[in-house]
Amino acid sequence: MAILGELVTGLASGTVEVVDLTTPLSERTPVIQLPPEWGQPWSFSREVISRYDEAGPAFYWNNLRLSEHTGTHFDAPAHWLSGKDLDDVASVPPGRLAGPAAVLDFTAQVAADPDFLLQREDVEDWMEEHGPLPEHGWLLYRTGWAERAPEEFHNDGVSPGVEVDCAKWLAEETPVLGIGVETIGTDAGAAALFEPPFPCHWYFHGAGKYGLTQLRNLHRLPATGAVVVAAPLPIVGGSGSPARVLALIER
Prior knowledge:
single chain; 251 residues; alpha/beta; 5 helices
């Protein structure tokens, strides 16, 4: 109880700051564009039920229409063929929704090459400087993509990601529980052409691990020391869910 008391005191005093990593959700929020022969996710839209009017004089609310994988969202293992027999989003243990974070900053490389792919050597170099990746924690991959306007997110299919062998190594041989990115999905824009296609999805979900997408404010986090809390809706049978993602950092 002393630990929680210290946390409450830190929150009240400002020595522990809560950073919102969630991109606000609206009709402008970009969604992934898949090859035209595949099914397509819905963009976010809403219809007013009532707004203090004759349909409901004392209350305002909306009906929503959107994909499970819209905006800042959580990918469960069941999202992918490799994890089809593993957890849906409602089955993810609550203890795996919070954990330490390693923030890897490759904004300079992506500014020079928007097709930049994270390599195993890049991660190992980061570990040489900052220490091992966190046990049961998140690898947060900062690329600067969060600073783009929504209409620039697709970038004609050119966006950064993770190289195939690196994705396999991270998923199968490191202790992280998932990967978080600033882009629309956890894979590069060209990842449909990789072998296997969409390797972050294939390897992370096959290993029972998770994805977080369309994060922002990663520049406000230290390389190590933050704690991330990801809160998806527990949709029964769901492959994922829009999520509120928060980080706790010491000041």
